[in-house]
Amino acid sequence: MVEPSGTGRVEEVVMCRWLAYSGEPLRPAELILDTQHSLVAQSLNSPLGAETVNGDGFGFGWYPTDPSPDAVPGIFHSIEPAWHNENLRDLTNTITSPMFLAHVRAAAGPPIQQTNCHPFRHENWLFMHNGFLEGFHLMQRDLRYAVDPSLYPSIVGTTDSETLFYLALTFGLQDDPIAALGRALRFVEETGEKHGVSAPVQGTYAVADGKTLWAFRYSTSHHSRTLFHSAAIPELREMFPDVERLEVFGEHAKVVVSEPLNDTPGAFITVPESTVAVLDESGYHHEPFLADAEAVLTPA
Amino acid sequence: MVEPSGTGRVEEVVMCRWLAYSGEPLRPAELILDTQHSLVAQSLNSPLGAETVNGDGFGFGWYPTDPSPDAVPGIFHSIEPAWHNENLRDLTNTITSPMFLAHVRAAAGPPIQQTNCHPFRHENWLFMHNGFLEGFHLMQRDLRYAVDPSLYPSIVGTTDSETLFYLALTFGLQDDPIAALGRALRFVEETGEKHGVSAPVQGTYAVADGKTLWAFRYSTSHHSRTLFHSAAIPELREMFPDVERLEVFGEHAKVVVSEPLNDTPGAFITVPESTVAVLDESGYHHEPFLADAEAVLTPA
Amino acid sequence: MVEPSGTGRVEEVVMCRWLAYSGEPLRPAELILDTQHSLVAQSLNSPLGAETVNGDGFGFGWYPTDPSPDAVPGIFHSIEPAWHNENLRDLTNTITSPMFLAHVRAAAGPPIQQTNCHPFRHENWLFMHNGFLEGFHLMQRDLRYAVDPSLYPSIVGTTDSETLFYLALTFGLQDDPIAALGRALRFVEETGEKHGVSAPVQGTYAVADGKTLWAFRYSTSHHSRTLFHSAAIPELREMFPDVERLEVFGEHAKVVVSEPLNDTPGAFITVPESTVAVLDESGYHHEPFLADAEAVLTPA
Amino acid sequence: MVEPSGTGRVEEVVMCRWLAYSGEPLRPAELILDTQHSLVAQSLNSPLGAETVNGDGFGFGWYPTDPSPDAVPGIFHSIEPAWHNENLRDLTNTITSPMFLAHVRAAAGPPIQQTNCHPFRHENWLFMHNGFLEGFHLMQRDLRYAVDPSLYPSIVGTTDSETLFYLALTFGLQDDPIAALGRALRFVEETGEKHGVSAPVQGTYAVADGKTLWAFRYSTSHHSRTLFHSAAIPELREMFPDVERLEVFGEHAKVVVSEPLNDTPGAFITVPESTVAVLDESGYHHEPFLADAEAVLTPA
């Protein structure tokens, strides 16, 4: 619950909402603005969310439909609430994209600034997080000092999520995203232990490189926030039987969401705890992620 | 209910929250940030409000404690949500003021811009509104053309509230606030009738000149949003018996609010429908406002 | 010269810079960010400009490369200076567009808000202005009241330029852009005369519908700000002989600018005073515009 | 010179302008908005400045005239250019303050965010910087890791200046500002040497605690940007002989500026290189600061 304290500050650690799409080029507004529980609608009122309002900025990252060979994805960040942003509306209605990520933020505290908005980008990689690192205040100095010195100056915000992204990059995200994010989360858990934080990791995570989308669900306490994705397109069409604009969805369209975009029973598949869903042109599959308690890594 | 439509636009007419203080010089943060249901807390979650979130900008206007003879009140407007605004926090913690007005906005629609934030100012006068002019889209051209041509260029926003303020100024607000706002609202009702709008006026209104505070409650349908004010200081102290900082309130402190600032039963007095509360150093009194049913021009 | 007065207010009427492109789909950053005197470079330092800094917001409007049948152009407006806007950089680097317009603003005065940023949009039409309506303060009430009542509620900003656009729409811009803008400017001149303003019109104007681009240069005093456009692509290639990225320009690429984008002599063709340049796929031609003193129209 | 590169990024390290006041309570607008070369005028055009435009945000910090015992100074930060900020105008016209600091920023690069705006605050201390740490990109990880771990989480921006402030706090700024800033600058020079940076320190620095104002001028190369302050009030009155509002200045009024506020010869006293000016109620004096050439660690 977002509960301003007596000083008016938001003291509680709170969370966000995110959405990622992979498939045939699509106007992002179809998912971000135009569904029953679109991400922008969720920014005002989130049925499953830990807090009602996700109004502390937003971000949208997209891979272009016809990229130049060395193209990086575009990012649009804003500290305004998503629900009244005219630029976001125009942008997501005018472009098409075969892979995009969007995020609405409910900040655990100031500062509200564009450098704290998801998704975060490094070269052609994007990263988003819904959740938090418990005790980040205590751990951040250690965590950031573990980031590769060549990457360190690229950390420009104050969030736990951005530091986690740079730890994962340090541990090889661009070579093996699943192993690297796993090592990064284990490193956070070890660092937390040193500082007396018992359950430092909580969340769902999206990683994308323009071809593949990885959607992770993991928490130290094995009780993570919700994560869903749509299945192959027949199910998706079944989901939205009466919506004419569904014709724009292609055969490979898949969407990953922190909350379902509509109330149709069975329309969205739950990603289980301690699991990563891997989605690309060929379809999707689930893999265990940090699920073996014995297999805890101890990165240097 | 704030309900983004299929296009993501907020279509419904929605409302705001406001607060006004008159009395001994006070740090405004005492009322804006630091009470149980402070205005900033209400911006995230409004118990009595028509909508949950008042996140579409805010405004704060204050008369300085030691004004220069020709001093106009200061205004701080922002399109950001009030709940995370560090500048508002610092400003209201650092200054003192014998009369201030604050407003959090839930916009009926774009544009979200500082010129649409309350309070509005003309010379030493401030004005705020919680409510709306139904059918303003149809009436605005007629209403604005009725504004005194010398005042017309000062209208810089797009809200119904600002136009209403300039109508009231045209009708003599600076000479007789009660009569002038009454004439302005009647003019809106007449204009609505021409355009087939049956109940054009809805709301509560605050007017201040630095010495006196007028708080109005009136709607064409005689079913206005809530309005309350605190009584003399003994009641106020009774309201907050356990709050040490109440010591900062002086004998003449009075606060007018669209929602009570705490849950203490009886702490706040309701301003009845079709009534204006007049508050100044000498105390307060209520007067009927547009209350004569015979004189009503056009409500359905 | 932008000269803050003793009160710190910018009192002088000042001007802006703009750029428009028509041709094969292009990454807009090629012209907006990447040339010697790109629009963003001009926002900090404008060699031919009336003022050094164009830092009071900017706008970018673009027609998508693969529009849906009923597509309107996208718009990105911001009140920040263009030179440090990361979102503008990402957007113009990631998309392509066969026709786009960009504008950096040096405001004659507050308010600085997105609704005062060019280009302005109505359905599939875009409009930009570099210049001003002298005495707009005196004329604005008359000018706005002459706007078609059905269009009136769409005026959401405070600029002379937006009001001029809605006058031109009222006079038939969508049917005959040249005649309609001519009538609108004549109407401004007549209105100015009534208010004792001797030379009310000053500027260059861009109008676009997604297929054709009209670039006007006209002032009451026949001494308008500069306007240029590039010729057919052979000249354009001659202009940038050493720039490898010129390979991205297609055979039909044309750019209209308030200032040349480089110092190459002869690279840009001057649009003469009282002239409109019409640019589309087939090439370009110039026509006289309000050039016949006898032919002054008197719209109702 | 602010020179956007081919990518549109501002590559050159650039500088800022600042102003600090100590004396009888004063409306800050008198110095920030209302003089011939006021700080806001300098934000658009800076006669002595290294760059023309200081439009990348601003900050204003003030100690209240009647502070509560534990009062911290207020801060107003904005990423907008100072020259059109209505909130700054209202704030500095409405309050009075016996000590205030103001800063306009010309950023060496993104991000432009409030957490990168000066002055920086820790408890009752304020800090501003005009200049830069050369090679900060290389040094920042080492510099930040040298900050006291209990202070580390308070670093929320990305600037060299903020890191320098926290180093000075680590080295005892609150006990001995002159010694502590000296140690911090020496530490930066040592760190620069390790990274092959020959002249890492450049700038002028303001430190305030609400009672005393310290204004430093020091660079590794002994060639710092300009710094001036006004003398006792008789000189100040002599400076502005025709300005009626000078009557508001009290006997103890002193202002420190990176550029003189008017063109009157002799009105402002230069603070010499490697010197700190100490200003309080009793007057002012100069002390050498890092002036011992033998002790210089690393300049070229």
Automatic annotation (TrEMBL), chains A, B, C, D:
<protein>
    <submittedName>
        <fullName>Class II glutamine amidotransferase</fullName>
    </submittedName>
</protein>
<keyword id="KW-0315">Glutamine amidotransferase</keyword>
<dbReference type="Pfam" id="PF13230">
    <property type="entry name" value="GATase_4"/>
</dbReference>
<dbReference type="InterPro" id="IPR017932">
    <property type="entry name" value="GATase_2_dom"/>
</dbReference>
<dbReference type="InterPro" id="IPR029055">
    <property type="entry name" value="Ntn_hydrolases_N"/>
</dbReference>
<dbReference type="InterPro" id="IPR026869">
    <property type="entry name" value="EgtC-like"/>
</dbReference>
<feature type="domain" description="Glutamine amidotransferase type-2">
    <location>
        <begin position="16"/>
        <end position="300"/>
    </location>
</feature>
<dbReference type="InterPro" id="IPR052373">
    <property type="entry name" value="Gamma-glu_amide_hydrolase"/>
</dbReference>
